[in-house]
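Supplementary notes for students who missed Thursday's class. We covered one full example, reproduced here. Read the sequence, then the structure, then the short commentary at the end.
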Amino acid sequence: MRNAWSICRRELAAYFFSPIAYVLLAAWAFIMGIFFSGAFLNFASISVQLMRNPRAAESLNATAGVLEPVFSSVTIVLLFIVPVLTMRLFSEEKKQGTIELLLTYPIRDGQVLAGKFVSALLIYFVMLAVTLFFPVILSAYAEVDWAVVGAGYLGMFLLGSAFLAVGLFISSLTSNQIIAAALTFMLLLVSFIMDFLSIAVGPVTAEVIRHISIGAHLRNSIRGLIDTRDIVYLLNVTILFLFLSMRSLEYYRWRG
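Structure (token representation):
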């Protein structure tokens, strides 16, 4: 555990001593702020229009009207953020030749993997924490359903974990960071597009495609529904790609 934490601190230092973490946090806050501002202004406009109809106004739900569109946009933003966040984890080590040195230390491959994955996960956790300002700001003007907010953040955290595990695996396959980022983006994009393709096929095939699509498993949680099938699926994706990353490291050690 101590070795994994040492790797994690080393990775966090590498992130924050370079512009990567600051650029990602700034880009994330800016883009999510735009989504929140747009949804908030749209909800405010609808509220003003319904002021003359109190019965219709009672049906307005600030959590669903403002936060649900913002939480839904997380999947799209992560398509661009995750490849940049994970591309250097193993690719940079391979390019600089430090991966051989790292693997000769008395540290297990699992500890190396855990340290790198947790470092990326902590940065993503900070990114999610930044967005907590949105429901706090909204609560100053309207009633917020904090149970729905909590379910939404649980879903976004699990979705981010699955995306990061995919990026970590791709990074373990190549020494080129650009290729790692591009392949991660393409793989996540395919999963994203599959959800839309389900509209054009039969009901049985559509159900299978929706189940495979990673991003589709965020829908229930942002509506306040915690479905164990979504949780199990996202955890399985995370574990599967961490397992593949472990096998990739073992192959690299064996080949070397």
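Commentary. The mean pLDDT is 86. The CA atoms of residues 16 and 22 lie 7 Å apart. If anything here is unclear, bring it to office hours.
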